[in-house]
Write a structure and sequence with these properties.
The chain contains 8 helices and 5 strands. By secondary structure, it is α+β, with helices and mostly antiparallel strands. A 3-stranded mixed sheet has the order 1-2-3. The chain has a two-stranded antiparallel ribbon with strand order 4-5. α3 runs parallel beside α4. The chain is elongated, with a radius of gyration of 35 Å. The mean pLDDT is 82.
Length: 194
C-alpha cells in the first residue's frame, strides 16, 4: 500500500504514458507540491498535536485557551499537560475535581479533602500531597493556585505533605501449654511439666 506522501500521479497512469519524460517530470513536480501541502497541513493541527508542538507554540496556545495558572517557567511536560487539560478544567470549574486537576498538573500529585472528610469546620478544605520536592516557594504557588481555582464559598484550611514509607514487619509468637499429670494415688500432688 502506498502512503499518501509517497504517492505519485504516474502510479495511476498506464505504462505507455507514465514512462514519458514529460509525465515523469510532471509527476515529480506534483509530488513535491503535494508533500509541501501535507507538511503545512500537519503544522496547522495544534490542539490535536500538542505532544509535538514547540514550547513557544504551547505558550501561545495556553494564552489563547486561557489555561488557568499557566506559567512560562514551567517545564515543557507540565505545560503540555496543562494545555491538554484546559477544556476539561473549564467543564468542571469551581469543583474539587478542577482544583485537583490543576494541582496534579503543577505539583505531580494532590488530593482535596472537604471539611466533612477530616472533621473540620464547614466550608473549609485541605490539600494533601505526597510530592517530596515541595519547597516553601512551591507551597506559595500551591496556595495561589488553590485561591484562584477553588469555589468562592470554600476556604483553604491547610496543606498537608504526606510522606509514606514501605517497611517489612516481622512478627513472631510462641504458644506455651502446661500439662498436668496426675498419679494414681490420691495423696500425691500433681506434678507440673512444661
Amino acid at each position: 500500500m502506498i502512503k499518501l506522501k509517497d504517492a505519485n500521479i504516474t502510479d495511476s497512469l498506464p505504462d505507455v504514458v507514465a514512462k514519458e519524460p514529460w509525465c515523469i517530470a510532471l509527476g515529480y513536480a506534483i509530488q513535491r507540491q503535494h508533500r509541501k501541502l501535507l507538511f503545512y497541513a500537519d503544522r496547522a493541527r495544534t490542539y490535536s498535536n500538542i505532544d509535538q508542538l514547540d514550547e513557544r507554540l504551547l505558550d501561545v496556545l495556553a494564552t489563547e485557551l486561557k489555561t488557568p495558572q499557566y506559567s512560562e517557567s514551567f517545564p515543557v511536560e507540565t505545560k503540555r499537560s496543562m494545555v491538554k487539560g484546559t477544556l476539561a478544567y473549564y467543564a468542571t470549574a469551581g469543583t474539587n475535581a478542577a482544583l485537583e486537576m490543576v494541582c496534579r498538573d503543577i505539583f505531580g500529585s494532590a488530593e482535596v479533602l472537604d471539611w466533612y472528610e477530616y472533621g473540620g469546620e464547614p466550608g473549609y478544605f485541605r490539600i494533601q500531597t505526597d510530592n517530596p520536592n515541595i519547597t516553601d516557594e512551591n507551597v506559595h504557588e500551591f496556595i495561589a493556585v488553590a485561591e484562584k481555582v477553588k469555589r468562592l464559598s470554600a476556604w483553604l484550611d491547610k496543606i498537608e505533605i504526606v510522606s509514606t514509607t514501605k517497611q517489612e514487619l516481622f512478627v513472631g509468637a510462641i504458644l506455651m501449654q502446661r500439662v498436668v499429670q496426675y498419679f494414681e494415688h490420691e495423696d500425691l500432688k500433681p506434678i507440673w511439666k512444661e
